[in-house]
Amino acid sequence: MPNNIDAPPPRALYISREVAVQIAKQADAHPNEEVCGLLAGNTQNITQVFPIANDAPVKSSSFQMNAAELLRVLKQIDLSENDIIATYHSHPNGKLIVSKQDITALGQNWPHVCHVVVGRQAGALLMKAWTIQNQDISSVPILVDKRKVRFDDPQRLSKAQQVAIILAAVITIMILIALAVTLLPPPPDLTNPFR
After folding, report:
1. Per mean pLDDT, which range of 25-39, 83-97, 154-168 is the poorest?
2. What are 73-94's pLDDT values in tens digits?
3. How many CA atoms lie within 13 A of 112 on its CB side?
C-alpha cells in the first residue's frame, strides 16, 4: 500500500506496453461493461495490473470493486512491497472523462492515487489519468514505455485530412455563392426614365 497516504498523487504515470495490453485485454473481454482494478508499482512506475471484478448493479455505466477481491489484492500489493499508484476502470462509451459518480467515490476513497479511465475509439485503446482531491480534478500525463501519450485530441487529423476539409469547405462556399447569385431576382431596369 502507499507508504504515505497523505502524499500527493504522482504528477505523471509511467506504464509499460505490457501493462497497457493487460488492461486492453480485460476491457476487450467485457466491451459492454465497465472493468476495474488497481495499478501498482513504485513511485510513478506502474509494473503490476490487478483486475478486480465489477460488482455494480449496472455494469454498463458504473463500477464497484468486489470487496473480497479488493482486500486480497491490497494484501498482495502490500506483500510485494509495491505501492498502489492508480485505480483504473473502463468506459464502454469510449469517453475518457470521470463521471460525477467517479468523482464522489474515487475522490473520497482514493484521494492519494491517480485514476485511469480506459476506453476504445475506432479500435484504439485510449487512456487518461486523473487526480481527484477535494473535488479538484486534474489530468495527469501518461507515458507508455517512457513516451508521452497524447490523449487531449485522440482523433488528430493528418495534414491531408486537414487540407481536404478546408478544400471541401471552400468548394461548398463557392457553390453556395453561385447558387445564391442564380436565385437573385433580376436587377431592376434603370434605363427607363422615371414617370
Report:
1. 154-168
2. 999 999 988 899 999 999 998 8
3. 10
Contacts by 147-156, CB closer than 8 A, 24 or more apart: 151/96, 151/126, 151/127, 154/96, 154/121, 154/124, 154/126, 155/121, 155/122
Query: What is the rounded CA–CA span in Å between residue 129 and residue 59?
Result: 21
Contact 33, 98 (CB under 8 A): no
Per the structure block, which three cell numbers stand in for 37? 482494478
Q: Where are the alpha helices (DSSP H) in the chain?
A: 17-29, 67-79, 100-109, 159-183
Predicted confidence at residue 125, as pLDDT, reads 82
At 101-152, the pLDDT tens digits run 888 888 778 888 899 999 988 778 889 999 888 777 888 888 888 655 544 4
Judged by average pLDDT, the poorest of 12-26, 99-113, 163-177 is 99-113
- Residue 67, amino acid: A
Beta-carbon contacts of residue 37 (< 8 Å; ≥ 6 apart): 23, 26, 49, 50, 51, 52, 65, 73, 87, 88, 89
**Residue of 26, 151, 93 whose CA lies nearest to 38:** 26
Per DSSP, the chain holds a count of helices (H) and strands (E) of 4, 9
> Cβ neighbours of residue 50 under 8 Å, at least 6 residues apart?
37, 38, 39, 40, 73, 76, 77
Determine the distance from the C-alpha atom of residue 76 to the mean position of all C-alpha atoms in its chain, rounded to a whole number.
28
Query: Collapsing DSSP states into helix, strand and coil, what is residue 108?
Result: helix
